[in-house]
Design goal:
Keywords: Flavoprotein, FMN, NADP, Oxidoreductase. It holds the Pfam family Nitroreductase. It comes from Vreelandella sedimenti. This is Oxygen-insensitive NADPH nitroreductase. There is one protein chain. The protein is an alpha+beta fold. It folds into two domains: about 170 residues, 3-Layer(aba) Sandwich (NADH Oxidase); about 55 residues, no CATH class. Helix content is about 45%, strand content about 10%. A four-stranded antiparallel β-sheet has the order 1-2-4-3, sandwiched between helices. Helix 2 crosses helix 6.
């Protein structure tokens, strides 16, 4: 393994941070690194809201389900899928434009996700820990209002950044054979069963060791209910009509 691969395989979500600021110059470089990610047709369909106001951060703690590290991290970024800028740029040429296409939603969501992962990797290479916050989508309308997000822009996730104040274990991943398939999909049963045992042992061995579960059991809360069923209506209202 080279240093880049070693870094990628060492990722952990960091939720406890030192009371130490990330230098502004470094944060700017991290964002520039994010901008170097691949982008569909050079659209660059993303924007980041850097939330520096303490009151806004405290409100986002509540909107994300009480995740206190949203407030305690050095920096908090809200990554937005943004078709507004490109739609307006295309419209400024005098040509007619079509908005609300499902493909536009997919392109913007993929673009911002690739950008964010570049930022995450760049941050970790500098000793900065990160934690993605999908809880931004718990209350996307309230988040949009709080951050004054216009039409054709929606908040996809947040990211806490800061210098780690703890050293959590690296969580195992599925066997590579489960995700790297040759020529056809095939049967995952053997790989899932093996991974269930891996995760059971991980939960028992990690610090504390008081969680009795496996991978399949941990997925149940995500699939036994209509999770974030408000998202479709919210996205349509935001101009992503999925036509």
């Amino acid at each position: 393994m080279n240093d880049t691969i070693r870094l990628l395989k060492s990722h952990r979500s960091i939720r406890k941070f030192e009371e130490r600021d990330i230098p502004k110059e470094l944060l700017i470089e991290l964002v520039r690194s994010g901008q170097s990610a691949a982008t569909s047709s050079h659209i660059q369909a993303y924007s980041i809201i850097h939330v520096t106001d303490k009151q806004l951060r405290d409100q986002l703690v509540e909107l994300t389900g009480g995740q206190k590290y949203v407030a305690s991290s050095s920096d908090f970024l809200v990554f937005c899928a943004d078709m507004k800028r490109s739609l307006e740029a295309a419209r400024s040429t005098g040509e007619s434009v079509v908005s609300g296409m499902t493909e536009q939603l997919l392109v913007a969501t993929v673009d911002v996700s690739l950008m964010a992962q570049n930022i995450a990797i760049a941050a970790e290479s500098e000793g900065v820990g990160i934690c993605y916050i999908g809880g931004i989508r718990n209350n996307p309308q309230a988040v949009s209002e709080l951050l004054s997000l216009p039409q054709h822009v929606y908040p996809v996730f947040g990211m806490c950044l800061g210098y780690p104040a703890h050293d959590p274990d690296v969580k195992p991943r599925l066997p590579v054979e489960a995700v790297l398939k040759e020529n056809s999909y095939g049967d995952d049963t053997v790989h899932v069963n093996a991974f269930n045992l891996t995760m059971h042992n991980y939960y028992q061995a990690r610090r504390g060791g008081n969680k009795i579960s496996n991978w399949s059991q941990s997925l149940v809360p995500l699939f036994n209910q209509k999770l974030r069923s408000h998202m479709q209506e919210f996205l349509v209202d935001k101009g992503f009509e999925m036509k």
